[in-house]
Amino acid sequence: MNNCAVCNKKECETREAIFEGVLIKACSNCIALGKAVEIKPKEIEEKILELQKEEENEMIVPDFSSRIKNARLKLNWTEEDLANKMYDRIITIRNLESNKLVPTFRMAKNIEKILSIKLIDTFKAYYVNPETHKPSLNLKDGTLKIGDLLNIKEKRKV
């Protein structure tokens, strides 16, 4: 017996269902009223596998400013030379090289092309299932977050 995630009915029989795109446990009343759509075990496995697929994302490298400056100096270009090649202002180049301005992806791609350097890096993100992955609270490292306190409060209720 669980609580319904839709109507919050206590100690009722729940089944796995999808509610607004999220996998939850809902009571038969909420499923019957169409608030949640019940899914079968095979569909659950397919949805979880779909969510667990890796996702490629892009980000600007953290040391973009030094990469830009080093590449510019290697070509013996002034800030003005690079600004002219980019069709931009000198102040933009100065702000990029001093880390006061983070380039947009469009700008980074343009700089990559002009200076023949890598400013955009791809990384893979994975879905972590909160039901199977429960991080343990470690107070030895001195980092306590709000989520840790909520987990403690939730454990005390049980």
Amount of beta strand:
15-25%
- How many H/I helical runs? 7
Could you say which overall geometry the principal axes of the C-alpha atoms support? rod-shaped
| Number of self-contained structural domains | 2
Low-confidence parts, pLDDT < 50 over ≥5 residues?
none
User: What does the radius of gyration come to?
Assistant: 26 Å
Please outline the major beta sheet: 3 strands, antiparallel
The succession of helices and strands, N to C, reads EEHEHEHHHHEH
Lateral arrangement of strands in the main beta sheet: 2-1-3
Q: Tell me the helix content.
A: 40-55%
Mean pLDDT: 76
Distance between the ends: 14 Å
Report the count of strand segments.
Answer: 5
Strand-pairing-aware structural class = alpha+beta
Structural write-up:
The chain is α+β, with helices and mostly antiparallel strands and 158 residues long. The protein has two domains: 14-53 and 127-157, no CATH class; 58-124, lambda repressor-like DNA-binding domains (434 Repressor (Amino-terminal Domain)). It is built from seven helices and five strands, in the order E-E-H-E-H-E-H-H-H-H-E-H. The protein has helices spanning 28-32, 41-52, 64-74, 79-86, 90-97, 105-115, 146-157; strands at 14-19, 22-27, 37-38, 55-60, 120-125. The strands form two sheets. It has a three-stranded antiparallel sheet with strand order 2-1-3. Strands 4-5 form a two-stranded antiparallel ribbon. Helix 4 crosses helix 5 (90-97). The longest helix is centred in the N-terminal third of the chain and has 12 residues, at 41-52. The protein is rod-shaped and about 75 Å long. The protein starts with 13 loop residues before the first strand and ends with a helix. The mean pLDDT is 76.
